[in-house]
Design goal:
The complex is a heterodimer. Chain A folds into two domains: 5-80, Ubiquitin-like (UB roll) (Roll); 89-160, [2Fe-2S]-binding domain (DNA polymerase, domain 1, Orthogonal Bundle). Chain A has five helices and five strands, in the order ββαβββαααα. Chain A has helices spanning 26-33, 89-96, 106-119, 125-131, 143-160, and strands at residues 5-11, 14-20, 52-55, 58-61, 74-76. The radius of gyration of chain A is 16 Å and the shape is globular. Chain B is globular. Chain B contains 20 helices and 33 strands. In chain B, the strands form eight sheets. Chain B has an eight-stranded mixed β-sheet. Chain B is of the alpha+beta class. Chain B is 28% helix and 27% strand. Classes of the chains: A alpha+beta, B alpha+beta. At the A-B interface, α2, α3, α4 and α5 of A face α1 and α18 of B.
């Protein structure tokens, strides 16, 4: 077994150091080493989006990033979306809009949707669907997810205006 | 029991936030793979590269020597169940088949069949060890297509499987493990009375349930012989029973802790990993976690059957159906069992046919052992029947909705397999189609078409238990055993809240482990909101009985004198609220604990109709769904958002089945597309909003009129979509999926 590598990074606003093997994915590091099991593994090859995290402000599949690649990076996971004990509007809208059934894809959708709304606060339905197409959901048929993102966009717009 | 009308309810029909919601939007909810233990070992499974082969030998010695490997097991580490048959909650199962599917014994029967397993310090070390296991195979010819597997000279999967033809066993072993036959009336007479008779053949490919969470199990075989399992399952009690049988210990030695479950759709009922993790744990002396990779899920777990269905219908010129004949063959996959029974029961379930015969065959072939998938068997046969019916409507120049209304089953209609329908909502669903905005909206433009199809599924009864503890702060903790895949905790809590006159938030539902709640059957068969709902309502009544007695102590009267209205207990001008009485319970008497167990019959029935508008690109064969509406009888929608969610999710799964999803097999029986990239499930860019119309024809067998809604929504889509494609292009797609290459080819040949 190769020696572990020391990595310094920032996760959900906190400076974090961890040791990982060169072959460990960021998803493995998050889940197995750091106990951040909110990011889910559905396919381990970048097809399902359940492991989506923000890496330096860009949504990525954390199963396709190596742990050693995040030296000096800023990462945001689903665990970092709620702040100070309060749900983010997008989380609240997912709950009110019944946008989850089994909930396994939900962390990935929340991270991807939040990334979209930060980049584009007024997305059309088409833009929402395009930007969330990297996240698979097998339970909902997507209807309530898309509507909940629309609701969150309106709500965020109200709070900023 | 009498069903009340909607406006009598305070809680039912509202849309409270689900009780497990905050955990699930913050990443705190614990799914099977999130379980962590000190000294945890990680397991991996070696799988067969061949679809059909004899295992001559397995040499695990090199793997055992890899540093960091704790245990290696093969089928030899499992007790031999020999001929034992056990009822595991869904009918008798031959244990040797179940066990050989978990770990191949003697032969591998599909690519991906488990042959050995390793537990090590990490999955990476376990994978290294797997590569060192030497398996000597004698490769045999595989058989994949169901009709090929039925041939006399087909490669035989099992020497000990004989055709069970309505109770009679065949003389020679056969891949055809079951033949069912149903008849009603006089089929010859029925077709003789017809003015038009159409017979067509339909094929469907193997499709997977496609849950996003792979199978996972962690087992800890303790030094005292107690086995604890944390897993993702639709039924913790059936996992307990299956695992106990396969590892050879009494079921009381096994406790199953159901984790949050990331989708199941029928595919997480049979055990795969749990017994393997258990034996690896016993051998290594550590807790062992096994998690499947996605290719293992596709290659090693249950798809739904591929099928061949021939349907013949006869009708008079006015559209009255006179007779129907169906011949159905389903893949069983590697081992006997599968949904051929429901397939036969569902093929003509929406229409009142005076004369009909149905023959069904379940056929072993070299695919993964098929498993239930949402209304198992019904989608395949509805696809056939609805398309033939549409063709009859076209030939007779009748409106397809009117043709369906004319022949729709109603209370008193007898299905071909015998049962007479109680109060059902088939006609009401079709009336809702007729009145819908979608059905009446114009659809114009080239290569555009609209399709309508009906679908049917049962509500299983089975067994459920519930316990409800009244807390002194006036709330109630509900303990139940139905693993919650789609919000059922909340739909059950709402039924208890309605019974007790409380709010949904005043009920705290918990899904308990197998030591902490009474026996409860699987989350399946559209049964939880209905059957566990019945248990919850009864537990609520049990609470009211006990609280009435305590109020009687308070007022020194007979309990029968106390009236209950909502959450208020009253007598002769005195009244006390549920909350006040709950607070006094420990002063007035014993702690208040409601309990109930139920075993309702499989008596209720759910009907749904879907309307699909599509546009076909003639240059590529790609079908775009422009608009889609699902209409369904929910009896009483407890939480309408989650009823709509079932309808929308089922519809989109069905759209995937109709347009893209299929297992591609090579000549050697190897699946070519075992990833989410190549097994193409719908993304949100592939589908429009799914409109829903909930019809409520109360189910007389439930106090609130509930009908289960989970499964019916997958039944109509392949039919509705292919009928829409026909109306768009003039081409009937009689093979699923109607994928771009297949449709393009059909358009070229038309």
């Amino acid at each position: 077994m190769s020696k572990k590598i020391h990595v310094t990074t920032t996760i959900n606003g906190e400076p974090i150091e961890f040791l990982c093997e060169a072959r460990h994915s960021l998803l493995e590091v998050l889940r197995d080493s750091l106990g951040l099991t909110g990011s889910k593994e559905g396919c381990n090859n970048g097809n399902c989006g359940a492991c989506t995290v923000m890496l330096n402000g860009v949504p990525v599949d954390s199963c396709l990033v190596l742990g050693v690649e995040v030296e000096g990076a800023t990462i945001e996971t689903v665990e970092g979306i709620a702040q100070n004990g309060e749900l983010h509007p997008i989380q609240q809208c997912f709950l009110e809009g019944a946008a989850l059934q089994c909930g396994i894809c939900t962390p990935g959708f929340l991270v991807a949707a939040k990334a979209l709304l930060e980049k584009n606060p007024h997305p059309s339905e088409e833009e929402i669907r395009f930007n969330l197409a990297g996240n698979l959901c097998r339970c909902t048929g997507y209807d309530k997810i898309v509507r909940s993102v629309q609701a969150a966009a309106s709500q965020l717009q109200e709070t900023t205006s | 029991m009498k069903a009340a009308t909607s406006d009598e309810y305070k809680i039912l029909g509202t849309r409270p936030i689900r009780h497990d919601g905050a955990d699930k939007v913050t990443g705190k909810a614990k799914y099977g793979a999130d379980v962590q233990f000190a000294n945890l070992a990680h397991g991996k499974i070696l799988r067969s590269p061949h679809a059909h082969a004899r295992i001559k030998s397995i040499d695990t010695s090199a793997a055992e020597k890899v540093p960091g490997v704790f245990a290696v097991i093969t089928a030899n580490d499992f007790p031999d169940p020999q001929d034992k048959i056990a009822d595991l909650g869904e009918g008798p199962v031959t244990l040797s088949h179940l066990g050989s599917n978990v770990m191949a014994r003697g032969k591998v029967l599909y690519k991906g069949h488990a042959v050995a397993a390793v537990a090590a310090t990490s999955t990476h070390v376990a994978e290294q060890a797997l590569n060192l296991i030497q398996v000597d195979y004698e490769i045999l010819e595989p058989v994949l297509w169901v009709l090929d597997a039925m041939a006399e000279d087909a490669p035989l999967l099992h020497e000990n499987v004989f055709t069970d033809s309505m109770g009679e066993a065949s003389e020679k072993p056969s891949n055809i493990e079951k033949h069912l036959h149903f008849e009603k009336g006089d089929i010859e007479q029925g077709f003789a009375e017809a003015d038009i008779v159409i017979e067509r053949e339909f094929k469907t490919a193997s499709v997977h349930q496609g849950y996003i969470e792979p199978h996972v199990a962690t087992a800890d075989w303790n030094e005292d012989g107690q086995l604890r399992i944390w897993t993702s399952t639709q039924g913790s009690f059936t996992v307990r029973h299956q695992t106990a049988e396969l590892v050879g210990i009494p079921l009381s030695r096994v406790t199953v802790y159901p984790c949050e479950i990331g989708g199941g759709f029928g595919g997480k009922i049979a055990v795969y990993l749990q017994p393997v993790a258990a034996l690896l744990s016993r051998k290594s002396g550590r807790p062992v976690k096994l998690v499947m990779q996605r290719d293992e899920v596709f290659e090693g777990t249950g798809p739904t059957p591929g099928s061949f269905v021939r349907v013949k219908l006869g009708a008079k010129n006015d559209g009255t159906l006179t007779a129907g004949k169906a011949w159905i063959a389903f893949d069983a996959g590697a081992f006997p069992g599968g949904p051929i029974g429901p397939g036969c029961m569902c093929v003509f379930s929406c229409y009142d046919l005076p004369h009909a015969t149905v023959d069904g065959y379940n056929v072993c072939n070299n695919k993964p052992k098929t498993q239930a998938y949402r209304a198992p068997g019904s989608t395949h046969v509805a696809y056939a029947t609805e398309n033939v019916l549409d063709e009859i409507a076209g030939e007779l120049d009748l409106d397809p909705l009117d043709l369906r209304l004319k022949n729709a089953v109603k209370e008193g209609s007898r299905r071909v397999d015998g049962p007479v329908y109680p109060e059902i909502g088939c006609v009401e669903v079709l009336e809702a189609v007729k009145n819908s905005e979608h059905w009446n909206a114009p659809l114009e433009g080239p290569y555009r078409g609209r399709g309508l199809a009906l679908g049917f599924w049962f509500n299983c009864g089975l067994k459920s238990s519930a316990t409800a503890n009244v807390n002194t702060d006036g709330t109630v903790t509900l303990i139940e055993g139905s693993t919650d895949i789609g919000g059922s905790r909340t739909s059950l809590a709402m039924q208890l809240a309605e019974t007790l006159g409380l709010t949904a938030e005043e009920i705290h539902p918990q899904v308990a482990d197998t030591d902490s709640v009474g026996y409860t059957d699987v989350t399946g068969g559209s049964r939880v909101t209905f059957a566990t709902g019945l248990a919850v309502c009864k537990a609520g009544e049990d609470i009211q009985k006990q609280m009435r007695q305590q109020a009687a102590v308070l007022w020194d009267c007979d309990a029968n004198e106390i009236e209950i209205s909502g959450s208020t207990f009253s007598r002769n001008g005195n009244s006390i609220s549920f909350q006040e009485l709950a607070a006094k319970q420990l002063q007035l008497g014993e702690p208040i604990v409601g309990r109930a167990t139920v075993a309702p019959d499989c008596s209720t029935n759910g009907f749904g109709a879907h309307i699909a508008d599509v546009e076909v690109d003639p240059e590529t064969g790609k079908t775009t769904v422009l608009r889609y509406t699902a209409i369904q009888d929910a009896g009483k929608a407890i939480h309408p958002s989650y009823v709509e969610g079932q309808m929308q999710g089922g519809a989109v799964q069905g759209i995937g089945w109709a347009l893209n999803e299929e297992y591609f097999f090579g000549d050697a029986g190897d699946m070519k597309n075992a990833s989410f990239l190549d097994y193409r499930m719908p993304t949100c860019l592939d589908v429009p909003m799914i409109e829903t119309i909930i019809v409520e024809v109360p189910n007389p067998d439930h106090p609130f009129g509930v009908r289960g809604v989970g499964e019916t929504p997958i039944v109509p889509p392949p039919a509705a979509i292919t009928i829409a494609i026909h109306n768009a292009t003039g081409v009937y797609m009689r093979e699923l999926p109607a994928s771009p290459p297949r449709l393009w080819k059909a358009l070229q040949e038309a």
